[in-house]
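Late entry, evening session. Most of the bench is empty. Finally got around to the prediction I had been postponing all week. Sequence below, unchanged from the version circulated by S.P.
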Amino acid sequence: MNRAERVYQYMKEFGSITPMDAIKDLGYTRLACAISELKMDGYRVKTEIETGRNRWGRPVHYARYSLVEENAVQNNLH
C-alpha cells in the first residue's frame, strides 16, 4: 500500500485527516502531496480550513481533508 492509499484508508476509517493526524498516526509530513495524488487518481476530496491555536496562543490555520461521498455528489446533481 502506498502513501496515498494509506491516507485514503485513514479517511475512510476516521472520516477526515489533518496534517497533524498524518504526522502522529501515519508518520507522513507531506499530507498535501498524498491528497494531490488522490485527486489526480480521480478521488473527490473536500478541503476545509480550520483555525486552532499554537503553543503561544496565536491563531493558526490548517486543512482538514475528507472524501466526498458519491451519493452526496449524485444528490446535488438532482
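Two things to note before I forget:
The chain has four helices and two strands.
The longest helix spans residues 3-14.
Will write this up properly tomorrow.
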